[in-house]
C-alpha cells in the first residue's frame, strides 16, 4: 500500500500569521497520526515562513516516540542564516527517516520544479552521501519529464519524488490521460535503475486515486496543502481517514 505522509507546513503558516502557539503544530501532527497517517513531512525554509527549526526538533521527538517516519524536505544548497542552521545540520541533529532534497529558492511561493541533473549532479553527490551516512533515506524532487531522471541513482539517492503539480492541473482541466502516461513512464524509468518512487504536490482527494491507479509502484505520497484545506471543513481526523481509504 502507498503510505501517506502529512505535510504540516500549513498549520505553521496559520500559527505564524498571528504569533503565539495556536494552532499547535505538534497537536495537529499527533491528530494526523492518531487518524492513521504513516508519517509527518515538514519543509523548513530559511525565511521561517512556516515550519521552524524548533518545530523540526519537536516533531522529530514526536515521530520517534510514535515509531513513524519523519520526512524533512529542503534545499541542500541554501546557506544557513539566523534561525535556520541549514538542511544538513537539521538532519544531523534530528536524524529523520527520509530527507527529500528540493531545489527551491527563497522567492518561490512553493516548490514548482525538480533538479536539473546536468547542472546539479556533482554538487548533490557529496550531500547525498553525507545524509546516507546519517542514516537518512534520500529522495530527490524530480520533474516527470526530466530526460536525465536516472541520474538520481548515479548521485546515490534512494528514491525520487515526482513533482505532481502538472498532473493535478491536467486533472482539474478534465483530461489527465497524457500526464498519467508521462508519470507512469517516469516511475518505470526510476524503478528500472533501482529507485523508489514517491510523489507529491497538489495531490488531493479529488485526484489521488486516479494518480495511484495510473502510476505503478508509488511508495509514498506527501500531502499538505489540499489535506489541511479539506480539514477546515471536515476535521483532521476525518480527512486523514478519507485519504487512507483512497490508498
TrEMBL record:
Picking any one GO biological process from the record gives: pyridoxine biosynthetic process
Q: In which pathway does it act?
A: Cofactor biosynthesis; pyridoxine 5'-phosphate biosynthesis; pyridoxine 5'-phosphate from D-erythrose 4-phosphate: step 5/5
Q: Has keyword Cytoplasm?
A: yes
Q: Which residues are 3-amino-2-oxopropyl phosphate-binding?
A: 7, 18, 202, 224-225
Tell me the keywords, alphabetical order.
Answer: Cytoplasm, Pyridoxine biosynthesis, Transferase
Keyword GTP-binding recorded: no
Which reactions is this enzyme annotated as catalysing?
3-amino-2-oxopropyl phosphate + 1-deoxy-D-xylulose 5-phosphate = pyridoxine 5'-phosphate + phosphate + 2 H2O + H(+)
Under the heading Gene3D superfamilies, the entry gives:
Aldolase class I
Molecular function as annotated in GO: pyridoxine 5'-phosphate synthase activity
The family database entries (Pfam families) matched by this protein are listed as:
PdxJ
Q: Where is the active site?
A: 43 (proton acceptor), 73 (proton acceptor), 201 (proton donor)
Please give an example of a GO cellular component term from this record. cytosol
Site (Transition state stabilizer): residue numbering on this chain:
161
Question: Transmembrane residues, as ranges?
Answer: none
What is the similarity comment for this entry? Belongs to the PNP synthase family.
Q: Explain the purpose of this protein.
A: Catalyzes the complicated ring closure reaction between the two acyclic compounds 1-deoxy-D-xylulose-5-phosphate (DXP) and 3-amino-2-oxopropyl phosphate (1-amino-acetone-3-phosphate or AAP) to form pyridoxine 5'-phosphate (PNP) and inorganic phosphate.
Designated name of the protein: Pyridoxine 5'-phosphate synthase
Amino acid at each position: 500500500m502507498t503510505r501517506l505522509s502529512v505535510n504540516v507546513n500549513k498549520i505553521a503558516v496559520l500559527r505564524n500569521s498571528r504569533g503565539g502557539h495556536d494552532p499547535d503544530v505538534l497537536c495537529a501532527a499527533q491528530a494526523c497520526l492518531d487518524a492513521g497517517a504513516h508519517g509527518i513531512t515538514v519543509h523548513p525554509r530559511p525565511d521561517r515562513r512556516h515550519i521552524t527549526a524548533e518545530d523540526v526538533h519537536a516533531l522529530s521527538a514526536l515521530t520517534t516516540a510514535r515509531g513513524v517516519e519523519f520526512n524533512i524536505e529542503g534545499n541542500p544548497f541554501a546557506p544557513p542564516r539566523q534561525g535556520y542552521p541549514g538542511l544538513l545540520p537539521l538532519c544531523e541533529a534530528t536524524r529523520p527517516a527520509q530527507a527529500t532534497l528540493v531545489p527551491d529558492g527563497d522567492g518561490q511561493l512553493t516548490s514548482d520544479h525538480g533538479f536539473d541533473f546536468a547542472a546539479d549532479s556533482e554538487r548533490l553527490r557529496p550531500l547525498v552521501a553525507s545524509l546516507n551516512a546519517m542514516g537518512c533515506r534520500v529522495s530527490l524532487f524530480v520533474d516527470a519529464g526530466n530526460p536525465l531522471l536516472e541520474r538520481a541513482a548515479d548521485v546515490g539517492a534512494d528514491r525520487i519524488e515526482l513533482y505532481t503539480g502538472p498532473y493535478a492541473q491536467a486533472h482539474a482541466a478534465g483530461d489527465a490521460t497524457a500526464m498519467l502516461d508521462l508519470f507512469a513512464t517516469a516511475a518505470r524509468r526510476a524503478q528500472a535503475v533501482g529507485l523508489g518512487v514517491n510523489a507529491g504536490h497538489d495531490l488531493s482527494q479529488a485526484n489521488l486515486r486516479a494518480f495511484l491507479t495510473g502510476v505503478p509502484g508509488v511508495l509514498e505520497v506527501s500531502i499538505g496543502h489540499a489535506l489541511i484545506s479539506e480539514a477546515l471543513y471536515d476535521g483532521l481526523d476525518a480527512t486523514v481517514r478519507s485519504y487512507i481509504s483512497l490508498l
